[in-house]
Request: fold
Amino acid sequence: MDRLTTLRRGRLVFDLRDEGPDDGEPVVLLHGFPQDSRCWSRVAPLLHRAGLRTLAMNQRGYSPGARRPGRGAYRLSWLAADAIALLDAAGLARAHLVGHDWGGAVTWAAAAAAPGRVATATVLSTPHPRAFARALARSDQPLRSWYILVEQLPALPEVLLRAGLERGLRQRGLPATDSARYARLMREPGALTAALNWYRAIPLYATSLPGRVSVPLTYVFGEHDFALSRAAAEASTALVDGDYRFVELDAGHWLPETRPQEVARAVVDRVSSPR
Reply:
């Protein structure tokens, strides 16, 4: 079979890595900020050994051919639709979704919006968007999320991050090689502004967050996550109607890079026993 290396969606062109056994259960891998599909480079081989096919997409704004101007193009519903469009392009009726950070938010949204297309979901780090919103009023989540307010400003976030992104990523627990690679990615023309537009679009859909999730779902949470609170993680439980598993790791935020064995195990367990 032909293996996809790009996905065309209207005028947008997404780069992706389609790897593993041709006949393996398909697993879509969705990265977060400021990563790209290479954040799964330690996880994907473990999934391949378990017989799974992986499709890791550089998401909207991260693929040079999918850098739309303006925050309006980065609503969560559009990002979730991109993931479903990947299934269409690959000729897949259903697939297993795995997402980290913003990719986790996309996974929650796609599972809620298109349960017939999502066989199972595994979310790393990120709570359900509604649980996150509730935690803003009931926990220390606002203190952890101060940067989201700063990122609503024009131009200034780009200036600050161009100067200090690599150092900041290392300070927050990301390995040095990954920090350097993602910092280089964000120096590509238009890449940083596009990535920040994911945050700048939040006010556009704050009153229309994803609904309840009925597909089988595993949520993997690092107890030392600097950005996301345990209160938000725990509140996600009430928003899942399907089989639900909560896996807590002695880890920080960057689970694909720092805990690939545990991540792969959670994904394989979820895929092999969807219920």
Summary: The first strand starts at residue 6 and ends at 9. The chain is about 40% helix and 20% strand. The chain has one domain: 6-272. The domain at 6-272 is CATH 3.40.50.1820 (Rossmann fold).
